[in-house]
Amino acid sequence: MSPSAPKASIRPLLGLLLLATSSVPAAAAVLHAAGSTTVNPVVVEAAEILKARKGIEIQVDTQGGSTGGISALGDGRVEVAMASRPLEPDDQAKYPKVRFTPVAIGEDAVAVIVSKDVWEGGVHALSKEQMQQIYERRITNWKAVGGPDRRIVFFNKEPGRGTWEVFARWLYGDAKKAPAVSHPEVGANEEARTKVASTRGALSQLSSSWADGRQVFALAITTAPGRAVAPTNANIANGSYPLRRSLFLITNGPARGEAKVLLDFVLSPEGQALVRKHGYLALADLPGHR
User: Fold this and answer.
1) CB 73 within 8 A of CB 166
2) What's the pLDDT tens digit per position in 80-132?
3) Which CATH class is domain 30-106+246-285?
4) How many C-beta neighbours within 10 Å does residue 85 have?
């Protein structure tokens, strides 16, 4: 056998290898979304559906809540921010070159929640004034608002969380005017619910859809003498409950590529059904959107 024979026999194998390699599809681009733990369940389920149908990979992170998501979008680390608060002038000032483009996908409310012992002790509603006094530690025992003789344990949402922003804006008109407090802090909705459920005398802020009426209980807000408004879907939709908020997906400029696929799906009838499934109001449930 001549020395050139082995080289000749390798050529067909190389050709087959190159053909096989060229037939392997390129890895699909990964879409990154980050932000609100309130919006998160909708996006996570939408991501599962889009991966199964279209092969789109969507990675979702809730570190830092709404403000963390907006910052991640501003820094270019994600393509979609999830937010349970509106954009603020400070967001744009921090990232002047970013074209923040928010799209509302539904509506929710912030509930003031209490532990089971407080609820069963007779506290079912608080006024804004009572809530301010509790937040500022001027009321420290539930007995002062008609409840059990028990110390109030306030788990405060981390500043920057959309839930905290809505709560602080309701109490003080502007979240920046909220006084510094020294309450223990909680982050995601699941953490807030778990802490309140497992602590006697506990109170916190939470997305109303996470208040299950078994472990934690949503208080009504006393808006006038004899008028206590609970965070029901009907009261959120008609505007009578004061701590309501829109839920957003935000992109840098109009959504493109996989981000547009995600946004279009969430706004579709099937996606809006997911919004309702997770306890929020779909756009069609709101006045002016019907």
Assistant:
1) no
2) 999 999 999 999 999 999 999 999 999 999 999 999 999 999 999 999 999 99
3) alpha beta
4) 27
All CATH 3.40.190.10 domain ranges in the chain, comma separated: 30-106+246-285, 109-237
pLDDT attached to residue 254 = 97
Rounded to the nearest 5 degrees, what angle is found at the Cα of 74, between the Cα atoms of 108 and 172? 45
Instruction: Look up tokens 């019907």; give the residue.
Output: 290
* Coil, strand or helix at 281: strand
Contact 229, 241 (CB under 8 A): yes
Q: What is the DSSP letter of 151?
A: B
C-alpha closest to that of 121 among 141, 95, 101:
141
CA atoms within 13 A on the CB side of 130: 21
What does the H/E/C string look like for 133-145?
HHHCCCCCEHHHH
Give the right CATH number for 109-237 from 3.40.190.10, 3.40.50.740, 2.60.40.1220, 3.40.50.2300.
3.40.190.10
CA distance 73 to 34: 8
For residue 121, what is the DSSP state?
Answer: T
Q: Closest by alpha carbon to 195, among 216, 218, 220? A: 216
Contact 119, 100 (CB under 8 A): no
Amino acid code (one letter) for 276 = R
Buried b (16+ CB within 10 A) or exposed e, 39-73: bbbbbeebbeebeeeeebebebbbebbbbbbbbbb
E strands present in the chain: 30-35, 57-61, 80-83, 100-115, 125-127, 153-157, 185-186, 202-207, 216-218, 220-224, 227-229, 244-252
* Residue indicated by tokens 């509302």: 104
Read off the pTM: 0.83
